[in-house]
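Hi there,

I know you've been waiting on this one. I reran it after we fixed the sequence typo, so this is the corrected version. Both the input and the resulting structure follow.
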Amino acid sequence: MFQLVRGRHYMGARVPDDALAVMPNHYNLHSLHDCPEMFYPADLVSYAIAQGWYTPACYGDFSDFDFAAAYQLPEESFGPRNVMRQKNGLRIALNRPWSVEKEGMPFCVKADHPVDAMRMADILSSHYEGTHDCCAHFGPGLSPHDASSIRYICTGTTLESDLFVLRDDPHLTTVFSAFGRPCQLPYIPLHPLLGLPESLSPMADAPSSMANHLRSVPGSSCFADTPWWRLRGIECTADMLYSSVADDLRALLVRMLNQQLDADEHLIAKLAQYLQDGDEAAARALSLESDDNAICSALRTLEDFACAAFDTVRVDSLPTLALHPAEHERVRLTLHTDHTLIPDAMAFGVAHTNVKLSFAPLLPDALTDCGNGVYTAEFDAQKLASPLASPGRYLFILGGRCEGGKPFAGITTVEIR
Protein backbone atom coordinates (compact mmCIF):
# COMPACT_ATOMS: atom_id res chain seq x y z
CA MET A 1 0.00 0.00 0.00
CA PHE A 2 1.42 3.37 -1.06
CA GLN A 3 0.76 6.82 0.36
CA LEU A 4 1.54 9.46 -2.25
CA VAL A 5 2.53 13.08 -1.74
CA ARG A 6 1.98 15.82 -4.30
CA GLY A 7 5.16 15.90 -6.31
CA ARG A 8 7.46 12.89 -6.39
CA HIS A 9 7.61 11.73 -2.78
CA TYR A 10 5.83 8.75 -1.33
CA MET A 11 6.03 6.00 1.23
CA GLY A 12 4.87 2.43 0.83
CA ALA A 13 4.87 -0.87 2.66
CA ARG A 14 3.95 -4.46 2.03
CA VAL A 15 1.43 -5.39 4.70
CA PRO A 16 2.85 -8.46 6.52
CA ASP A 17 0.90 -11.70 6.13
CA ASP A 18 -0.05 -11.77 9.81
CA ALA A 19 -1.17 -8.12 9.94
CA LEU A 20 -4.08 -5.99 8.83
CA ALA A 21 -4.11 -2.36 7.70
CA VAL A 22 -6.88 0.22 7.94
CA MET A 23 -6.04 3.28 5.83
CA PRO A 24 -8.51 6.16 5.51
CA ASN A 25 -7.73 9.45 3.74
CA HIS A 26 -4.65 10.35 5.74
CA TYR A 27 -1.02 9.27 6.01
CA ASN A 28 -0.45 6.68 8.72
CA LEU A 29 2.98 5.35 7.82
CA HIS A 30 5.46 6.65 10.38
CA SER A 31 9.06 5.47 10.74
CA LEU A 32 11.38 4.12 8.05
CA HIS A 33 10.90 0.67 9.60
CA ASP A 34 7.15 0.29 10.18
CA CYS A 35 7.18 -2.98 8.22
CA PRO A 36 9.91 -5.40 7.03
CA GLU A 37 9.40 -4.28 3.42
CA MET A 38 9.32 -0.49 3.01
CA PHE A 39 9.54 1.65 -0.12
CA TYR A 40 10.47 5.35 -0.33
CA PRO A 41 12.74 7.67 -2.34
CA ALA A 42 16.30 8.26 -1.13
CA ASP A 43 15.62 11.93 -0.31
CA LEU A 44 12.40 11.39 1.65
CA VAL A 45 13.97 12.52 4.94
CA SER A 46 16.40 15.13 3.58
CA TYR A 47 13.59 16.82 1.62
CA ALA A 48 11.44 17.05 4.76
CA ILE A 49 14.40 18.58 6.64
CA ALA A 50 15.03 21.10 3.83
CA GLN A 51 11.37 22.13 3.86
CA GLY A 52 11.44 22.64 7.63
CA TRP A 53 8.90 19.88 8.22
CA TYR A 54 11.23 17.69 10.29
CA THR A 55 14.23 18.37 12.52
CA PRO A 56 16.08 15.32 13.94
CA ALA A 57 16.50 15.32 17.70
CA CYS A 58 20.10 14.24 17.13
CA TYR A 59 22.01 15.34 14.04
CA GLY A 60 22.31 12.48 11.54
CA ASP A 61 19.97 10.21 13.53
CA PHE A 62 16.62 9.77 11.76
CA SER A 63 15.14 7.24 14.17
CA ASP A 64 12.53 9.80 15.27
CA PHE A 65 11.39 10.56 11.70
CA ASP A 66 7.62 10.32 11.26
CA PHE A 67 6.37 10.42 7.67
CA ALA A 68 2.75 11.15 8.66
CA ALA A 69 3.75 14.04 10.92
CA ALA A 70 6.31 15.52 8.49
CA TYR A 71 4.36 15.33 5.23
CA GLN A 72 0.86 16.05 6.51
CA LEU A 73 -0.78 19.18 7.83
CA PRO A 74 -1.18 18.95 11.63
CA GLU A 75 -4.97 19.19 11.38
CA GLU A 76 -4.98 16.27 8.91
CA SER A 77 -2.39 14.22 10.80
CA PHE A 78 -4.76 13.86 13.71
CA GLY A 79 -7.97 15.13 12.18
CA PRO A 80 -10.98 13.59 13.92
CA ARG A 81 -12.72 12.54 10.69
CA ASN A 82 -9.91 10.22 9.63
CA VAL A 83 -8.86 9.19 13.13
CA MET A 84 -12.39 7.97 13.85
CA ARG A 85 -12.51 5.97 10.63
CA GLN A 86 -9.21 4.23 11.36
CA LYS A 87 -10.03 3.73 15.03
CA ASN A 88 -13.42 2.17 14.33
CA GLY A 89 -12.12 0.10 11.43
CA LEU A 90 -9.54 -1.40 13.77
CA ARG A 91 -12.14 -1.87 16.50
CA ILE A 92 -14.37 -3.95 14.23
CA ALA A 93 -11.51 -5.85 12.55
CA LEU A 94 -9.91 -6.82 15.87
CA ASN A 95 -13.24 -7.24 17.70
CA ARG A 96 -12.03 -5.15 20.64
CA PRO A 97 -11.89 -1.46 21.63
CA TRP A 98 -9.04 0.55 20.11
CA SER A 99 -7.48 3.35 22.18
CA VAL A 100 -5.96 6.07 20.00
CA GLU A 101 -4.36 7.64 23.08
CA LYS A 102 -2.60 4.44 24.18
CA GLU A 103 -2.12 2.55 20.90
CA GLY A 104 -1.76 5.41 18.43
CA MET A 105 -2.59 5.25 14.71
CA PRO A 106 -0.21 2.62 13.28
CA PHE A 107 -0.13 1.68 9.62
CA CYS A 108 -0.86 -1.97 10.43
CA VAL A 109 -1.36 -4.21 13.45
CA LYS A 110 -0.94 -7.91 14.17
CA ALA A 111 -4.18 -9.83 13.73
CA ASP A 112 -5.09 -12.75 15.99
CA HIS A 113 -7.82 -14.03 13.66
CA PRO A 114 -8.60 -13.81 9.92
CA VAL A 115 -10.68 -10.89 8.70
CA ASP A 116 -13.24 -12.56 6.44
CA ALA A 117 -15.70 -11.05 3.96
CA MET A 118 -18.46 -10.69 6.56
CA ARG A 119 -16.15 -8.77 8.91
CA MET A 120 -15.02 -6.57 6.00
CA ALA A 121 -18.66 -5.83 5.17
CA ASP A 122 -19.21 -4.79 8.80
CA ILE A 123 -16.28 -2.39 8.58
CA LEU A 124 -17.22 -0.86 5.24
CA SER A 125 -20.88 -0.31 6.22
CA SER A 126 -20.11 1.14 9.66
CA HIS A 127 -21.52 4.35 11.12
CA TYR A 128 -19.93 3.55 14.52
CA GLU A 129 -23.22 2.23 15.86
CA GLY A 130 -23.18 1.60 19.61
CA THR A 131 -20.15 3.80 20.30
CA HIS A 132 -19.63 7.33 21.59
CA ASP A 133 -18.43 8.29 18.08
CA CYS A 134 -21.94 7.89 16.64
CA CYS A 135 -23.51 11.35 16.69
CA ALA A 136 -27.08 12.63 16.39
CA HIS A 137 -28.49 12.74 12.86
CA PHE A 138 -30.87 15.07 11.07
CA GLY A 139 -32.84 15.44 7.84
CA PRO A 140 -35.44 13.11 6.31
CA GLY A 141 -35.12 9.68 7.93
CA LEU A 142 -32.30 10.82 10.26
CA SER A 143 -29.70 9.26 7.99
CA PRO A 144 -26.10 9.04 9.29
CA HIS A 145 -24.90 9.84 5.78
CA ASP A 146 -25.89 13.48 6.29
CA ALA A 147 -23.74 14.02 9.38
CA SER A 148 -21.87 17.31 9.06
CA SER A 149 -19.64 17.08 12.14
CA ILE A 150 -18.28 13.56 11.58
CA ARG A 151 -17.23 11.30 8.73
CA TYR A 152 -18.28 7.69 8.99
CA ILE A 153 -16.68 4.85 7.06
CA CYS A 154 -19.97 4.47 5.14
CA THR A 155 -20.94 8.05 4.36
CA GLY A 156 -22.88 10.31 2.00
CA THR A 157 -20.16 10.33 -0.65
CA THR A 158 -19.70 6.55 -0.70
CA LEU A 159 -20.30 5.81 -4.37
CA GLU A 160 -19.53 2.09 -4.33
CA SER A 161 -18.05 -0.56 -2.05
CA ASP A 162 -16.09 -3.62 -3.14
CA LEU A 163 -14.76 -6.75 -1.46
CA PHE A 164 -12.08 -8.64 -3.40
CA VAL A 165 -11.61 -12.38 -2.90
CA LEU A 166 -8.24 -13.03 -4.56
CA ARG A 167 -7.29 -16.47 -5.83
CA ASP A 168 -4.14 -17.94 -7.39
CA ASP A 169 -5.72 -17.91 -10.85
CA PRO A 170 -6.71 -14.25 -11.47
CA HIS A 171 -9.65 -15.40 -13.62
CA LEU A 172 -11.20 -16.75 -10.42
CA THR A 173 -11.00 -13.45 -8.53
CA THR A 174 -14.43 -12.56 -7.15
CA VAL A 175 -15.39 -8.93 -6.68
CA PHE A 176 -18.35 -8.60 -4.32
CA SER A 177 -19.66 -5.22 -5.39
CA ALA A 178 -22.30 -3.02 -3.77
CA PHE A 179 -23.34 -0.50 -6.41
CA GLY A 180 -23.73 2.19 -3.74
CA ARG A 181 -23.52 2.36 0.06
CA PRO A 182 -23.07 -1.14 1.55
CA CYS A 183 -25.47 -0.48 4.42
CA GLN A 184 -28.28 -0.13 1.86
CA LEU A 185 -27.32 -2.31 -1.11
CA PRO A 186 -26.13 -5.93 -1.24
CA TYR A 187 -22.68 -7.18 -2.14
CA ILE A 188 -23.15 -9.02 -5.46
CA PRO A 189 -20.48 -11.45 -6.72
CA LEU A 190 -18.88 -10.60 -10.07
CA HIS A 191 -15.97 -12.18 -11.92
CA PRO A 192 -14.80 -9.31 -14.12
CA LEU A 193 -11.77 -11.06 -15.63
CA LEU A 194 -14.22 -13.53 -17.20
CA GLY A 195 -16.46 -10.71 -18.46
CA LEU A 196 -19.29 -8.42 -17.30
CA PRO A 197 -22.93 -9.55 -17.57
CA GLU A 198 -25.42 -7.77 -19.82
CA SER A 199 -27.46 -6.60 -16.83
CA LEU A 200 -24.61 -4.18 -16.02
CA SER A 201 -24.77 -2.65 -19.51
CA PRO A 202 -21.03 -3.07 -20.14
CA MET A 203 -19.30 -0.72 -22.58
CA ALA A 204 -19.53 -1.93 -26.16
CA ASP A 205 -16.06 -0.58 -26.87
CA ALA A 206 -14.20 -0.20 -23.58
CA PRO A 207 -10.81 0.86 -25.05
CA SER A 208 -12.45 3.69 -27.00
CA SER A 209 -14.45 4.77 -23.97
CA MET A 210 -11.34 4.82 -21.81
CA ALA A 211 -9.44 6.84 -24.42
CA ASN A 212 -12.18 9.48 -24.30
CA HIS A 213 -13.18 9.22 -20.64
CA LEU A 214 -12.52 12.91 -19.90
CA ARG A 215 -14.90 14.09 -22.61
CA SER A 216 -18.47 14.92 -21.66
CA VAL A 217 -21.01 12.55 -23.20
CA PRO A 218 -24.56 13.98 -23.06
CA GLY A 219 -26.92 11.52 -21.44
CA SER A 220 -24.23 9.36 -19.86
CA SER A 221 -25.43 10.15 -16.34
CA CYS A 222 -29.16 9.99 -17.18
CA PHE A 223 -31.56 7.49 -15.70
CA ALA A 224 -32.19 4.25 -17.59
CA ASP A 225 -34.43 1.36 -16.56
CA THR A 226 -31.54 -1.00 -15.79
CA PRO A 227 -30.71 -3.10 -12.71
CA TRP A 228 -27.93 -0.68 -11.69
CA TRP A 229 -30.23 2.34 -11.73
CA ARG A 230 -33.09 0.49 -10.04
CA LEU A 231 -30.76 -0.55 -7.23
CA ARG A 232 -29.57 3.04 -6.87
CA GLY A 233 -33.19 4.17 -6.66
CA ILE A 234 -33.76 1.75 -3.78
CA GLU A 235 -30.63 3.05 -2.04
CA CYS A 236 -31.73 6.69 -2.30
CA THR A 237 -35.26 5.89 -1.15
CA ALA A 238 -33.92 3.86 1.80
CA ASP A 239 -31.77 6.81 2.82
CA MET A 240 -34.83 9.05 3.11
CA LEU A 241 -36.45 6.35 5.29
CA TYR A 242 -33.32 5.42 7.22
CA SER A 243 -34.64 5.44 10.80
CA SER A 244 -37.59 3.23 9.81
CA VAL A 245 -35.95 0.64 7.60
CA ALA A 246 -32.22 0.47 8.45
CA ASP A 247 -32.29 -2.40 10.95
CA ASP A 248 -34.40 -4.75 8.83
CA LEU A 249 -32.51 -3.82 5.67
CA ARG A 250 -29.10 -4.47 7.26
CA ALA A 251 -30.30 -7.87 8.52
CA LEU A 252 -31.47 -8.72 4.99
CA LEU A 253 -28.11 -7.68 3.49
CA VAL A 254 -26.23 -9.91 5.95
CA ARG A 255 -28.37 -12.90 4.96
CA MET A 256 -27.87 -12.13 1.29
CA LEU A 257 -24.08 -11.90 1.62
CA ASN A 258 -23.93 -15.20 3.49
CA GLN A 259 -25.90 -16.86 0.71
CA GLN A 260 -23.76 -15.25 -1.99
CA LEU A 261 -20.50 -16.34 -0.33
CA ASP A 262 -21.69 -19.96 -0.21
CA ALA A 263 -22.94 -19.86 -3.80
CA ASP A 264 -19.69 -18.33 -5.00
CA GLU A 265 -17.59 -21.14 -3.52
CA HIS A 266 -19.60 -23.70 -5.51
CA LEU A 267 -19.36 -21.58 -8.66
CA ILE A 268 -15.59 -21.15 -8.32
CA ALA A 269 -15.12 -24.93 -8.08
CA LYS A 270 -16.94 -25.36 -11.42
CA LEU A 271 -15.08 -22.49 -13.07
CA ALA A 272 -11.74 -23.85 -11.86
CA GLN A 273 -12.51 -27.23 -13.40
CA TYR A 274 -13.39 -25.68 -16.77
CA LEU A 275 -10.17 -23.64 -16.75
CA GLN A 276 -8.12 -26.67 -15.71
CA ASP A 277 -9.59 -28.54 -18.68
CA GLY A 278 -8.63 -25.66 -20.97
CA ASP A 279 -12.25 -24.71 -21.74
CA GLU A 280 -12.14 -20.97 -21.08
CA ALA A 281 -15.20 -20.34 -23.26
CA ALA A 282 -17.35 -22.56 -21.03
CA ALA A 283 -15.95 -20.83 -17.93
CA ARG A 284 -16.83 -17.42 -19.36
CA ALA A 285 -20.34 -18.51 -20.33
CA LEU A 286 -21.04 -19.96 -16.88
CA SER A 287 -19.55 -16.93 -15.12
CA LEU A 288 -21.62 -14.45 -17.14
CA GLU A 289 -24.82 -16.43 -16.60
CA SER A 290 -24.19 -16.76 -12.85
CA ASP A 291 -23.28 -13.10 -12.40
CA ASP A 292 -26.34 -11.98 -14.34
CA ASN A 293 -28.57 -14.23 -12.22
CA ALA A 294 -26.96 -12.89 -9.03
CA ILE A 295 -27.67 -9.27 -10.03
CA CYS A 296 -31.26 -9.92 -11.11
CA SER A 297 -31.98 -12.06 -8.03
CA ALA A 298 -30.57 -9.39 -5.70
CA LEU A 299 -32.69 -6.74 -7.42
CA ARG A 300 -35.86 -8.83 -7.03
CA THR A 301 -35.11 -9.41 -3.34
CA LEU A 302 -34.51 -5.70 -2.72
CA GLU A 303 -37.60 -4.63 -4.65
CA ASP A 304 -39.77 -7.12 -2.73
CA PHE A 305 -38.35 -5.74 0.53
CA ALA A 306 -38.97 -2.16 -0.59
CA CYS A 307 -42.54 -2.96 -1.60
CA ALA A 308 -43.27 -4.35 1.87
CA ALA A 309 -41.19 -2.04 4.07
CA PHE A 310 -40.88 1.36 2.37
CA ASP A 311 -43.38 4.08 3.27
CA THR A 312 -43.63 5.99 0.01
CA VAL A 313 -45.77 8.73 -1.46
CA ARG A 314 -46.71 8.91 -5.12
CA VAL A 315 -45.17 11.85 -6.93
CA ASP A 316 -46.80 12.97 -10.17
CA SER A 317 -44.44 13.35 -13.10
CA LEU A 318 -43.06 16.85 -13.36
CA PRO A 319 -43.28 19.02 -16.41
CA THR A 320 -39.83 19.43 -17.92
CA LEU A 321 -37.25 21.39 -15.94
CA ALA A 322 -34.82 23.76 -17.61
CA LEU A 323 -31.13 22.99 -17.32
CA HIS A 324 -30.62 26.69 -16.55
CA PRO A 325 -33.79 27.90 -14.78
CA ALA A 326 -34.60 31.57 -14.34
CA GLU A 327 -33.78 33.22 -11.04
CA HIS A 328 -36.49 32.59 -8.40
CA GLU A 329 -38.20 30.02 -10.66
CA ARG A 330 -40.17 27.44 -8.68
CA VAL A 331 -40.92 23.77 -9.29
CA ARG A 332 -44.22 22.45 -7.96
CA LEU A 333 -44.67 18.77 -7.06
CA THR A 334 -48.03 17.06 -6.60
CA LEU A 335 -48.00 14.29 -3.97
CA HIS A 336 -50.57 11.61 -3.13
CA THR A 337 -50.57 9.94 0.30
CA ASP A 338 -52.78 8.76 3.16
CA HIS A 339 -50.46 10.45 5.66
CA THR A 340 -50.59 13.95 7.07
CA LEU A 341 -47.41 15.58 5.78
CA ILE A 342 -45.48 18.32 7.58
CA PRO A 343 -42.88 20.70 6.08
CA ASP A 344 -40.15 19.66 8.53
CA ALA A 345 -36.95 18.49 6.76
CA MET A 346 -38.57 18.05 3.34
CA ALA A 347 -36.00 17.89 0.52
CA PHE A 348 -35.99 17.04 -3.18
CA GLY A 349 -33.01 16.40 -5.47
CA VAL A 350 -31.17 14.39 -8.11
CA ALA A 351 -30.61 10.83 -6.94
CA HIS A 352 -27.15 10.14 -8.33
CA THR A 353 -25.52 13.13 -6.59
CA ASN A 354 -25.48 11.00 -3.41
CA VAL A 355 -25.03 13.80 -0.91
CA LYS A 356 -28.26 15.50 0.07
CA LEU A 357 -26.41 18.78 0.66
CA SER A 358 -27.13 19.42 -3.03
CA PHE A 359 -30.87 18.79 -2.57
CA ALA A 360 -33.37 21.65 -2.60
CA PRO A 361 -35.17 22.24 0.71
CA LEU A 362 -38.89 23.01 0.71
CA LEU A 363 -39.46 26.72 0.12
CA PRO A 364 -41.02 28.62 3.07
CA ASP A 365 -44.76 28.06 3.43
CA ALA A 366 -44.75 26.01 0.22
CA LEU A 367 -46.48 22.79 1.39
CA THR A 368 -50.20 22.92 0.65
CA ASP A 369 -52.79 20.37 1.77
CA CYS A 370 -55.29 20.22 -1.12
CA GLY A 371 -57.48 17.63 0.62
CA ASN A 372 -58.26 13.99 -0.19
CA GLY A 373 -54.65 12.99 0.32
CA VAL A 374 -53.27 15.42 -2.26
CA TYR A 375 -50.47 17.89 -1.45
CA THR A 376 -48.41 20.31 -3.45
CA ALA A 377 -44.84 21.29 -2.54
CA GLU A 378 -42.60 23.90 -4.14
CA PHE A 379 -38.81 23.97 -4.52
CA ASP A 380 -36.18 26.32 -5.94
CA ALA A 381 -35.63 25.29 -9.57
CA GLN A 382 -32.06 26.65 -9.66
CA LYS A 383 -31.09 24.55 -6.64
CA LEU A 384 -32.63 21.45 -8.21
CA ALA A 385 -30.76 21.93 -11.49
CA SER A 386 -27.40 22.90 -9.96
CA PRO A 387 -25.87 19.34 -10.06
CA LEU A 388 -26.90 18.74 -13.69
CA ALA A 389 -24.45 19.05 -16.57
CA SER A 390 -26.57 18.16 -19.60
CA PRO A 391 -30.19 17.62 -20.71
CA GLY A 392 -31.75 14.20 -20.29
CA ARG A 393 -33.97 12.08 -18.04
CA TYR A 394 -32.88 12.03 -14.41
CA LEU A 395 -34.00 10.19 -11.29
CA PHE A 396 -35.20 12.51 -8.49
CA ILE A 397 -35.84 11.61 -4.84
CA LEU A 398 -38.17 13.32 -2.37
CA GLY A 399 -37.98 12.92 1.39
CA GLY A 400 -39.76 14.36 4.40
CA ARG A 401 -41.72 13.57 7.54
CA CYS A 402 -45.31 12.79 8.36
CA GLU A 403 -47.20 13.91 11.43
CA GLY A 404 -45.58 12.15 14.40
CA GLY A 405 -42.11 12.29 12.81
CA LYS A 406 -42.28 9.16 10.64
CA PRO A 407 -40.24 9.62 7.44
CA PHE A 408 -41.61 9.21 3.94
CA ALA A 409 -40.02 9.11 0.50
CA GLY A 410 -41.06 9.48 -3.12
CA ILE A 411 -39.30 8.81 -6.39
CA THR A 412 -39.85 10.14 -9.90
CA THR A 413 -38.02 10.90 -13.11
CA VAL A 414 -37.69 14.41 -14.53
CA GLU A 415 -36.91 15.43 -18.10
CA ILE A 416 -34.27 18.16 -18.17
CA ARG A 417 -34.37 20.28 -21.30
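Quick highlight: Residues 241 and 337 are 15 Å apart (CA to CA).

Best,
R. S.
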